[in-house]
Design goal:
single chain; alpha+beta; Immunoglobulin-like; 2 domains; 2 helices; rod-shaped
Length: about 220
C-alpha cells in the first residue's frame, strides 16, 4: 500500500529561509541558557576572604559597643573631676564656715539704735552651700545671764535663702536695728520694756541654723 511522500527535488526559497531562522533561534536559546548557568542572577559575588559581608545589625552592635565605651570614659572623667573638686558644691559643714556677730559701733548714745548683722566666711578649700536666710538666722542680745532680746521673737515674714560660699569668701547680712527693748517668745502685741543705758554692757551672739557664731560681740548703751 503506497503512502504520500514529499516530492524530491529543489524546494522553494522560502523553505530554506524558514529553516535558517529556526536554526538561528535554536542557537540563541542555547547561548542564553549557557549564560544563565554561568552567571546566576541575584547571587552576590564572594568576598576575597570568603567571609560573609557584615549586615546592618552587625554594624549596629559594633556602633552600640563603641558608644558604651565612650559613655564609660565620660563617666570616669566626671568622677575624676568631682574627686578633684570640680563637681557640684556640697553642703557646708561647721568646720568649714565661720559665723561672726557684727555691730556697727562699740558704744551708742541715748538715742542711737544698734545695727546688728553677721558674716559668713568659708574657711575651707572647696565651695559649699548653706541655707542662710532670715528664717534660720538668730540675733540674740544678753546682759550677763539675762536674755534681753531675740530676732526670732515675733519675727515677721522670714525669708529663706540658699548661699554658695567660695573658698575664702565672706558674706555679710543686711543690718537690722535693735530698738533697745526686751522681747519674749510668743509675747508680741504688748508694749515692750526699754532696757537701761548709762554705760550698761550688752552682748550680741548669732547663729545660722545649726551654725553657731564665733563668740559674742560686746557693746555699750549710754
Amino acid at each position: 500500500m503506497s503512502s504520500l511522500r514529499h516530492p524530491v527535488g529543489p524546494q522553494p526559497p522560502s523553505v530554506y529561509w524558514r529553516r535558517r531562522a529556526v536554526v538561528g533561534l535554536g542557537l540563541i536559546a542555547v547561548i542564553v541558557v549557557i549564560i544563565l548557568i554561568v552567571v546566576r542572577p541575584g547571587t552576590a559575588e564572594p568576598t576575597g576572604s570568603g567571609e560573609p559581608a557584615p549586615t546592618a545589625s552587625d554594624s549596629a552592635e559594633v556602633d552600640g559597643s563603641e558608644a558604651d565605651d565612650e559613655q564609660s570614659d565620660l563617666d570616669a572623667a566626671a568622677e575624676d573631676a568631682a574627686a578633684e573638686g570640680g563637681g557640684a558644691p556640697q553642703a557646708c559643714t561647721s568646720e568649714q564656715v565661720q559665723v561672726t556677730p557684727i555691730t556697727d559701733a562699740e558704744s551708742y548714745g541715748p538715742e542711737s539704735q544698734p545695727q546688728l548683722s553677721l558674716s559668713l566666711l568659708n574657711t575651707g578649700s572647696r565651695p559649699c552651700i548653706i541655707e542662710a536666710g532670715s528664717d534660720v538666722q538668730e540675733f540674740l542680745i544678753t546682759s550677763g545671764p539675762d536674755r534681753i532680746w531675740s530676732s526670732r521673737d515675733c519675727q515677721v515674714d522670714p525669708v529663706a535663702a540658699t548661699v554658695v560660699l567660695e573658698p575664702g569668701e565672706e558674706r555679710s547680712t543686711p543690718a537690722i536695728p535693735w530698738n533697745r527693748t526686751r522681747s519674749e517668745p510668743g509675747v508680741c502685741d504688748v508694749q515692750r520694756t526699754p532696757v537701761p543705758g548709762g554705760g550698761a554692757t550688752y552682748r550680741l551672739s548669732v547663729s545660722v541654723g545649726e551654725f553657731a557664731g564665733d563668740g559674742d560681740r560686746p557693746f555699750l548703751l549710754n
